[in-house]
Amino acid sequence: MSSALQQYRITPNSTTSSVAVPITPTPDYVAQLNSLVHSQEVLASTGYIVKELSDEDLESKKRCSGCGIQMLRLQKNEKRNEKRNEQRNNKKKDKEHAQDEGNLERACAVSVSSSSSDTSSDGPVSHGVALPNSTPRMRCKFHSGWLHLKAWSCCGKNPTDPPCVQREYHIPRSDVSGETERLWQHHPTKIGQTQFSHRAAVAIDCEMGTTMSNDSELIRVTLLDYFSGQVLIDKLVWPDVPMLHLNTRFSGIRWPDLHNARRKRSCLFGRDNARAAVLKFIGPSTIVVGHSAHNDLTSLRWIHHRIVDTYILESALKEAAEKAVTESPQKTPVEPTTVSDTSPKNADGGQKRPKGRGLLSLKTLSKVKLGREIQVGRNGHDSIEDALAARDLVHVYLTSEDNRAVHEILDEEIRSMAT
Ligand SMILES: [Zn+2]
Ligand SMILES: [Zn+2]
């Protein structure tokens, strides 16, 4: 470990708010940081979008013109139902098969003991073949009107009454203006020459609100220089889609803040401008550090391939530790992180993994590994604090001998996560 690294020490159990301590980018340190960059397979399997969305992907982002649910979600539900039905049918078949065998045995016993041949009773039944169902299954149910004076305008029924329109299939909304592409397409970092403004490594954190169509939408973006800790961007983002709420409890952002920023024109306008602001500092070789950063990149509709994600690192560490315990119960886990809750992330990032809860959360990791309390109080997250915590976790990982000792196991673990 070079002496330059030793100068940076995070004081254990210090509960003071986070202050960025500069890290010297020695060749050794930069090489170590580079070695943590995840493969595209790992990124793809942990919720990152690694290539531009295909026409099919975009189609699945459309919503049903009737019930308004996203086609992707409907497809997933349909698949889940099919699987459940198949399992149920298989169980039924097994049960009937067992019954048939029982019947057959009984029938044989009867025919041996008696010459009578009564075949009408207890004969084998349907073998699980469902009778054709004459009424089609109605998948799409909705009210075609709107709620007015506590009644649906379409049918006059109460708000909680069952939908008055039913269709056999969902029909995606037509998209003549290319809105789906505009809303959902992801844009890769430009390949080309490194500019003077491009940083070697940055840490990112974004805050999101919820749109009227129940999607996550960028409302604040924060970017730090990994080495100097300098705040490169910390701006509110005025969303260019109708919003349901700002998720204030977690985002810490209120409407007056946003309106104020818009009036002063101190915010960024829309996610495309936010992405453009971020990309000023990002070249093709820039390493982006974050915690569950697929959510942040998705909120910017941004594709970047050089990522170090502390959630992925910590998941792998935890799995390696668990494996060490299983394989050799008398051995101490390789990494005594007291985390014990994880499951593979949802590949489309649909299931949001909050950074503020759970044992692999940034909040817990920051407390356990950095001795630093973050996300305290009622004001929600502070993106600067969160981005800095992710950066410092990576730094601890790179400078702690314990962590480096498991580097090889970790490599293998991370590789296996992608398969
Ligand atoms: Zn109705
Ligand atoms: Zn529908």
From TrEMBL:
It comes from the Eukaryota. Residues 75-104 have a biased composition (Basic and acidic residues). Residues 110-122 have a biased composition (Low complexity). Residues 200-403 form the Exonuclease domain. Residues 1-19, 327-345 have a biased composition (Polar residues). GO terms for biological process: ribosomal large subunit assembly; rRNA processing. GO terms for cellular component: nucleus. Keywords: Exonuclease, Hydrolase, Nuclease, rRNA processing. SUPFAM superfamilies: Ribonuclease H-like. Residues 1-22, 75-134, 323-358 are annotated as: Disordered. GO terms for molecular function: exonuclease activity; nucleic acid binding. InterPro entries: REXO1/3/4-like, Ribonucl_H, RNaseH-like_sf, RNaseH_sf. Exoribonuclease involved in ribosome biosynthesis. Involved in the processing of ITS1, the internal transcribed spacer localized between the 18S and 5.8S rRNAs. This is Exonuclease domain-containing protein. It comes from Talaromyces rugulosus (Penicillium rugulosum). The lineage of its organism: Eukaryota, Fungi, Dikarya, Ascomycota, Pezizomycotina.
